[in-house]
Amino acid sequence: xxxxxxxxxxxxxxxxxxxxxxxxxxxxxxxxxxxxxxxxxxxxxxxxxxxxxxxxxxxxxxxxxxxxxxxxxxxxxxxxxxxxxxxxxxxxxxxxxxxxxxxxxxxxxxxxxxxxxxxxxxxxxxxxxxxxxxxxxxxxxxxxxxxxxxxxxxxxxxxxxxxxxxxxxxxxxxxxxxxxxxxxxxxxxxxxxxxxxxxxxxxxxxxxxxxxxxxxxxxxxxxxxxxxxxxxxxxxxxxxxxxxxxxxxxxxxxxxxxxxxxxxxxxxxxxxxxxxxxxxxxxxxxxxxxxxxxxxxxxxxxxxxxxxxxxxxxxxxxxxxxxxxxxxxxxxxxxxxxxxxxxxxxxxxxxxxxxxxxxxxxxxxxxxxxxxxxxxxxxxxxxxxxxxxxxxxxxxxxxxxxxxxxxxxxxxxxxxxxxxxxxxxxxxxxxxxxxxxxxxxxxxxxxxxxxxxxxxxxxxxxxxxxxxxxxxxxxxxxxxxxxxxxxxxxxxxxxxxxxxxxxxxxxxxxxxxxxxxxxxxxxxxxxxxxxxxxxxxxxxxxxxxxxxxxxxxxxxxxxxxxxxxxxxxxxxxxxxxxxxxxxxxxxxxxxxxxxxxxxxxxxxxxxxxxxxxxxxxxxxxxxxxxxxxxxxxxxxxxxxxxxxxxxxxxxxxxxxxxxxxxxxxxxxxxxxxxxxx
Length: 677
Ligand code: ATP
Ligand code: MG
Prior knowledge:
Number of helices: 29
Mean pLDDT: 87
Number of domains: 4
Distance between the termini: 83 Å
Radius of gyration: 27 Å
Shape: globular
Strand order of the largest sheet: 13-14-12-15-16-11-19
Bound molecules: adenosine-5'-triphosphate, magnesium ion
CATH architecture of the largest domain: 3-Layer(aba) Sandwich
Number of strands: 19
Oligomer: single chain
Structural class: alpha/beta
């Protein structure tokens, strides 16, 4: 046992200190944004270790792995003499932890230990295959799309009620398909189980069911003296059930959260988890925090009013000792390009004042909202990293390459085999199915592909693939980057035949190979890719140089828990925030309001909210199709009374508002022509 460093503990406020040094038992910290919940968890990990709890008997559950890494790095810096703390504590997301535990307890869970994890788009594709096989796609009336099917399935299994409840409440237009949906999900589950595939939801479900068994639960639970959970407001009922199961023997559980920031109900997260905590974990101590350490008071004056409109809310008004500073600005822009220019001008001005680009962030509701800003930044050579938008793993050529690794890891993985086989010349669904069946009958050995009687048009490519499989088999004990190099030799010519623009694609594959170098085993690499996909363009590059600097662009969802000196919230217009995809019900609007709140509470010193009056419709392609927007309904007169409302441009004040002498170009001639088309 080591004496606690008085400095970091005495720097905390009394309520934080109470939570950090609280004895055994359940503990819930309910508090608003920026009140130090995450810091409290970090300090509690450090405190527990300093009190002699072995780091590897602590489990820290966070929303992203990046968050866990950062928190453990900070915890390690607080405790001297424990340099290995960050490596030894079990830290990560629920899904990653589920994966780690299920590999250990595969036998008890009735799983083959070499199961493969399907990411969301794989799961959709797989569901789609089942949907086609059951001939649901060819009905007279249109059966729900694969993404809708997966969303219904996911809500159902994550504890959002019976199938009927879920469909009635969230997907009422699918009510007539209930029987078929049930049949589809039954078959989907069966096939996943046969092929050793787990989707994201399965990871949680298997963990959940594992700890429903008392003896297994005792065994798994006893690995951890303490479990700590950040962002508890975004956990769902299955996750709550997992925690209950994990805490049968000892009830040391610390959870922190803010009901006003719950933004994941589409993943069945429920604020109820937080409200029910005291009932689920009897004897729970509850600590509340009210002082905000992040933001200047003028920023809080605005954000307090934004969230005051929320109906269900438990946290109190926040206050800060950080006085002074400017009021947040609400900036009306004529159009998107003016919004881009205004952001860029302010970013550069703040940089002149000494605020590095990395301390500034542009936030938006939907990944595509930054398209035009990205172009503008590139044309000015202003470096940026975007979070939450890059679908690296969803690019076809990356999926292809990963497909080769997946079939080697799990030869029963039909989705991956079909993907790989259909890349070959002369191979369509029928030949792919025959080849897969041939391997299945040979005991699922990929090497048996060499003996498959391929149709003449496919013979050469099938032979090439069989050679590749043979070589990869011989490289099993090598790391994944060598295997990727071998796959590249086979795949690059295929890619040139199948896709346009092979050069940038080849570059992406090179990146993937570089990423793979960090991993000792193929399994580990595949798991990490699926569970913790690269989130930003920056994640693909190597570690940054010290003097490197870039502006952060992020969706609001990916900005959770983070903070910047300057925050720009763009596209704050009705239809974009709240998103018109989510204006169905009052609950959905409430969640959009909390999203706006999460975005604005990321700001430490400066907050700018921008909205373009004129908005071009992206779906229409390159056209002049636009509409006039309204400022987001969340900026009521009570809210704007705390802000400086300005019009972008050269200070002409209102000149760009329609009706004034605005330089708008209406496409009237087009419209008149269109009447006769
Ligand atoms: P969010 O709800 O956004 O996740 P949070 O409650 O987790 O916020 P933190 O991120 O832990 O808040 O803290 C916000 C900021 O306040 C951080 O910069 C943190 O270092 C600082 N902070 C928290 N508590 C204190 C304190 N007692 N003294 C000084 N700074 C503090
Ligand atoms: Mg936090």
